[in-house]
């Protein structure tokens, strides 16, 4: 059963120079206990898509078209108050990029975790602090540490604290935006292990937003590759990494060096991602695509289902 | 050559040799604390590092943040004054040079590329001014025409073509990848013999990263430059480097050729580091090595082996005695009590 269904989502930012089409006709689903990796380069719209799901867009951003349904209820149609009371943090929560550096320095971590519960649930402070302690244990920190301050903790610990914070109100879906970019590899592996454990223990679904495809290969069941505001390939990670279909995915996977297997030459993609104020006509990847044909320059490729649960938007298929 | 400089012996084919390099940063105490503290605490950033870089080789320095790899790189070009040690380049100890013009003369031959192209380029200088600045400081060009030619050539070498389109632009008009290429062009315009590259691509997106790396490798081959490549990404160092040294808390724990080090890491820290790197293959089944905690503080590094607090194989001896960096196999050095000095492996059962 699909927990979250995003259909034909379009999200634009109004700027002086025009509309930035940050998310343009994006569809994906997340079912229970699934982890979806949303990958792409900076500025491809992955965070904007996540913020649309959270309904936390900045004042100049708006959802232009499309539907985001959670268990059948359309989030885009809900009012702000309803979102705050029913959806945000209770059903869907988010670990923001760089959140570990945004912890309040003069409140204890227990207080900061409890804050979300007090806001959303009818419980008293003592109960909330007790639950905060339990949550810390869930992410691998001793429960006595609720009265610690952020400066007393290391980077990996702080990342666990913000993970615990996202779990405060027992959400069904957690969106993690680059949760480990500021961490060293060994600590990154520790945090990812905690996230994977939580998924099966708490029946959680994850959306993992990252630019690092290897992280998605290791932690996710499904992946969506975004380029310039569109999803170019979507499906199960195993076929996607074994036999990627879209030329962008093929190139991007080979751009990541690996410590195992034979040493291969890294692939590079010539040129730069396009300006989303004036994205190129047709397929947005065509100026950089080695296999670009005439049709790619004029027609936007539709999203088609290929074999093996893989979807791709490319005129080659 | 002035008489104060002694010629140091160096092995053949060695471009640069680092001997017992040490850098301690004193910690500034507040007024009251300084009254009651007898000894000034130090951050032991680099603590006795030895390595040499062969001519035309890319030598990788790999480690987590705070391990001292950047400080080492900066000591080599004297952007940071080391506390102790020798850096021998062309038969001279770089650190004994006290005269400004002597240092400057050697800087013509050694350059550095910094990590962040958003901070390393002066926003008020045009690309032409940025790349021509080293030529002017070093006074290597005869006239303005030669400067212009060399700047254009440097831009072409980095695939910033046509050069005229970039010459009079400013850094803010360029993308991250283009900026970093300008920074590389600035480093290569003097045709240096030795180059320190400090995480040159860590700020760039994957699709752009590999193109910059390719250009860097191409230039390295073209000018036969010796490289110190500093990175936290061991997978990337596998791709770029000929030999790799792994650093942990200011010390080198293992040094070997890239294939040996990645294929069969000996030090438990290197093993953990490699096991922790995610690989772009969802079906790969790999050994999981669970390392607890994070890197301890470099102000009071643990006694004995510095990794013993997190090491899954820690023995009693590790807590008291610091393991020396010893040769265990052909051209492999490791600092760990698990390995004997005569190539035999003593592993705890």
Give a description of the structure.
The complex is a heterodimer of chains A (317) and B (349). With 317 residues, chain A is of the alpha/beta class. Chain A has a single domain (2-274, 286-304, 307-311), classed as P-loop containing nucleotide triphosphate hydrolases (Rossmann fold, 3-Layer(aba) Sandwich), CATH 3.40.50. Helices cover 31% and strands 25% of the residues of chain A. Chain A has helices at 46-54, 80-87, 109-120, 125-138, 155-166, 185-201, 213-219, 237-242, 247-254, 294-298, and strands spanning 2-15, 18-31, 35-39, 61-70, 73-74, 92-95, 173-177, 205-210, 222-227, 230-236, 304-305, 310-312. In chain A, the strands form two sheets. In chain A, strands 6-7-8-3-9-10-12-11 form an eight-stranded mixed beta sheet, with helices on both faces. In chain A, a hairpin with a 2-residue loop joins strand 9 (222-227) and strand 10. The longest helix of chain A has 17 residues, at 185-201. Chain B is of the alpha/beta class and 349 residues long. Chain B has two domains: 1-30 and 40-109 and 191-295, P-loop containing nucleotide triphosphate hydrolases (Rossmann fold); 124-189, no CATH class. Chain B is built from twelve helices and twelve strands. Chain B has helices at residues 31-36, 69-76, 100-107, 127-138, 144-157, 164-167, 176-188, 206-223, 234-240, 258-263, 268-276, 316-320; strands spanning 14-26, 42-54, 58-62, 84-89, 92-93, 110-113, 194-198, 226-231, 243-248, 251-257, 326-329, 332-334. In chain B, a hairpin with a 2-residue loop joins strand 4 (84-89) and strand 5 (92-93). In chain B, helix 7 (176-188) runs parallel beside helix 8. The longest helix of chain B is centred in the middle third of the chain and has 18 residues, at 206-223. The interface between A and B is large, with 43 and 39 residues.
């Amino acid at each position: 059963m699909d927990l979250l269904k995003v259909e034909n989502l379009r999200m634009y930012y109004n700027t002086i120079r025009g509309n930035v089409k940050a998310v343009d006709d994006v569809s994906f689903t997340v079912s229970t206990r699934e982890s979806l990796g949303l990958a792409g380069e900076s500025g491809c719209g992955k965070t904007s898509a996540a913020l649309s799901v959270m309904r936390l867009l900045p004042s100049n951003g708006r959802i232009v078209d499309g539907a985001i349904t959670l268990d059948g209820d359309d989030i885009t149609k809900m009012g702000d108050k309803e979102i705050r009371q029913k959806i945000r943090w209770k059903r869907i929560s988010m670990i923001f990029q760089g959140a570990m550096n945004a912890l309040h320095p003069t409140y204890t971590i227990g207080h900061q975790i409890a804050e979300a519960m007090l806001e959303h649930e009818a419980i008293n402070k003592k109960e909330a602090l007790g639950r905060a302690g339990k949550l810390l244990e869930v992410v691998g920190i001793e429960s006595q540490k609720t009265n610690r301050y952020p400066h007393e903790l290391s980077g990996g610990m702080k990342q666990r604290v913000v993970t615990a914070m996202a779990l405060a109100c027992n959400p069904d879906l957690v969106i993690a935006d680059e949760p480990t970019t500021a961490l060293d590899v060994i600590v990154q592996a520790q945090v990812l292990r905690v996230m994977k454990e939580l998924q099966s223990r708490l029946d959680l679904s994850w959306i993992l937003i990252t630019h690092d495809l290897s992280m998605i290969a290791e932690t996710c069941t499904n992946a969506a590759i975004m380029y310039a505001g569109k999803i170019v390939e979507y499906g199960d990670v195993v076929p996607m990494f074994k036999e990627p279909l879209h030329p962008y995915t093929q190139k991007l996977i080979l751009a990541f060096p690996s410590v195992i297997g034979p040493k291969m030459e890294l692939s590079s993609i010539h040129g730069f991602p396009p300006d989303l104020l004036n994205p190129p006509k047709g397929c947005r990847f065509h100026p950089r695509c080695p296999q670009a044909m005439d049709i790619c320059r004029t027609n936007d490729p539709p999203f088609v289902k290929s074999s093996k649960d893989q979807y791709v938007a490319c005129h080659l298929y | 050559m002035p008489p104060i400089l002694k010629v140091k012996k160096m092995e053949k084919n060695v471009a640069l040799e680092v001997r017992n390099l040490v850098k301690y940063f004193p910690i500034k105490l507040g007024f009251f604390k300084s009254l009651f503290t007898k000894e000034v605490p130090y951050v032991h950033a680099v603590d006795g590092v030895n390595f040499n870089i062969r001519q035309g080789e890319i030598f990788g320095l790999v480690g987590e943040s705070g391990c001292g790899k950047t400080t080492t790189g900066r000591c080599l070009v004297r952007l940071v004054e080391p506390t102790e040690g020798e850096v021998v380049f062309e038969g001279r100890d770089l650190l004994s040079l006290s005269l400004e013009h002597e240092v400057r003369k050697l800087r013509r031959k050694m350059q550095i590329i910094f990590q962040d192209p958003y901070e390393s380029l002066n926003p008020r200088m045009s690309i032409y001014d940025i790349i021509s600045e080293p030529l002017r400081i070093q006074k290597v060009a005869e006239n303005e025409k030669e400067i212009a030619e060399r700047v254009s050539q440097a831009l072409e070498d980095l695939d910033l073509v046509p050069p005229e389109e970039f010459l009079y632009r400013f850094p803010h008009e360029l993308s991250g990848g283009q900026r970093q290429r300008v920074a590389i062009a600035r480093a290569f315009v003097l045709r240096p013999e030795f180059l320190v590259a400090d995480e040159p691509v860590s700020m760039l997106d994957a699709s752009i990263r590999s193109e910059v790396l390719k250009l860097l490798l191409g230039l390295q081959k073209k000018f036969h430059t010796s490289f110190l490549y500093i990175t936290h990404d061991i997978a990337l160092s596998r791709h770029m480097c000929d030999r790799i040294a792994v650093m942990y808390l200011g010390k080198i724990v293992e040094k070997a050729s890239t294939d040996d080090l990645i294929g069969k890491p000996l030090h438990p820290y290197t093993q953990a580091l490699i096991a922790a790197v995610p690989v772009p293959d969802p079906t790969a089944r790999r050994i999981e090595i669970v390392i607890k905690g994070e890197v301890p503080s470099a102000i009071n590094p643990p006694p004995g082996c510095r990794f013993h607090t997190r090491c899954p194989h820690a023995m009693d001896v590790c807590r008291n005695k610091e393991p020396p960096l010893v040769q265990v196999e052909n051209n492999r050095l490791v600092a760990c009590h698990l390995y004997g000095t005569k190539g035999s492996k003593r592993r705890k059962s």
